[in-house]
Amino acid sequence: MVNGTxxxxxxxxxxxxxxxxxTGVRITVVKRWLQERELVAVRRGxxxxxxxxxxxxxxxxxxxxxxxxxxxLADGGFSDAEIIDWLHRPDDTLIGGSAIASLRExxxxxxxxxxxxxxx
Length: 120
Prior knowledge:
The chain has one domain (about 10-120). Helices cover about 45% and strands about 10% of the residues. The chain contains 6 helices and 5 strands; from the N terminus they run βααββββαααα. It has helices at about 15-25, 25-35, 65-75, 80-90, 100-105, 110-120, and strands spanning about 15, 40-45, 50-55, 55-60, 60. The longest helix is centred in the last third of the chain and has 12 residues, at about 110-120. The two termini are about 20 Å apart.
């Protein structure tokens, strides 16, 4: 099974302190985003640190359309690593070439439709 870390190059991951710095919030807010499933993270690297894909975050916080898509996939039984993999899997039929790129471009309806199809 995929571990969710193979689909994203090393430099495109953020530790929780990196997310806090990028968004200008305290680390406690970043942890709340994880608890409330606005973001997902996996453990990786030599320190086994929790890390978030960089493209899940804007300067203002989590990508707004991400939360609903995360919910659909998690409700369908996807692990956080599988969610990360699915969102980054190349798909030329989506705007931007992947589900996360499409969400960042504002095309959440099509991404959620596809997420529902595979999750249920």
